[in-house]
Amino acid sequence: MLTEAIEEYLEFWKQACPGEDGLWIHPADRDLVVRNGAASMSAPTSFNHYTGQPLFGSRDGLRLGLVPKPHIGDVTKARLFILNLNPAFSHRNYFEELEYTDYRESAIRALRDCRGQSFYILERRFAWTGGYEWWDKKWQKRWADISDAPFTDLPVAAVELFPYHSYNFAWKGWMRGLESVTKARALARALIESEERSVRLAVMRNPGLWGIDQQVTSPKTYLLPSSHRQSGYPDRNWLQDLKDWLFE
């Protein structure tokens, strides 16, 4: 069951491509995204083009000129799955992708087929990017406090419930109908229910939107306490338990 869920998830994201308008919306999501007015900003071709757009600085809508980030790492091999809500946004994301081809190509490769892919966003050549800074602060440095094993060597993958970048993300009811959201939730459900592979899940934001019981007590699933969800830092004691489990 887990193998099938992973294959279905990966097959879905193989189909990801920009439309004729240059916007990165999965074909199965496009009608719903456009119908709900979330594709208001056009796709820039350079950073200067982006900063010259009339909607530059707007906090509304999705940033669909950027490659979606539904996952990082190889979901076929991971034992730790970090479940987030959505990829954040800063202006430099456009510089990273539009002015640095290697970074954009790495993001596209990971999007369309993550098999054998590293947790690329933490590669040192990308240390200047916003993604590196976020993952380094939230996870890599905290892991280094308890282990000499590099975080990037762990069998870890991150999955975003909503794969598109946005300035101030606010969940809206129509998003529940997106096929990308359905696929992410189905993957999480299969991971929780499966006995095929020994895995752990770290649910960092809003387990209810993931369809996960907020009272769950399974050692397989770690729910970040609600008081910590704004900061998004995993608990040190839980990380120590995770280390013991990974290297037992």
Summary of the model, kept short:
This protein has 248 residues and is an alpha/beta fold. It contains 8 helices and 5 strands. α1 (2-14) packs antiparallel against α7 (179-193) and α4 packs across α5.
What characterizes the major β-sheet?
Answer: 5 strands, mixed
Q: What string, H for helix and E for strand, traces the elements in order? A: HHHEEHHHEHEEH
Q: At CATH's second level, what is the architecture?
A: 3-Layer(aba) Sandwich
What number is the mean pLDDT? 92
Overall structural domain count: 1
Level-1 CATH class name: Alpha Beta
C-alpha end-to-end distance = 26 Å
Q: Please identify the structural class as seen in this structure.
A: alpha/beta
Low-confidence parts: none
**What's the CATH topology name?**
Uracil-DNA Glycosylase, subunit E
Shape: globular
Helix content: 25-40%
Strand content: 5-15%
Strand order, sheet with most strands: 1-3-2-4-5
Characterization of the model:
The protein is α/β, with parallel strands linked by helices. The chain has one domain: Uracil-DNA Glycosylase, subunit E. Helices cover 34% and strands 8% of the residues. The protein is built from eight helices and five strands, in the order H-H-H-E-E-H-H-H-E-H-E-E-H. It has a five-stranded mixed beta sheet, with helices on one face. The mean pLDDT is 92.
Give the SSE layout.
Elements: H1 2-14, H2 30-35, H3 47-51, E1 71-72, E2 80-84, H4 92-99, H5 101-112, H6 130-144, E3 156-160, H7 179-193, E4 200-203, E5 221-223, H8 236-246
Parallel strand pairs: 2-3, 2-4, 4-5
Antiparallel strand pairs: 1-3
Helix pairs in contact: 1-7, 4-5
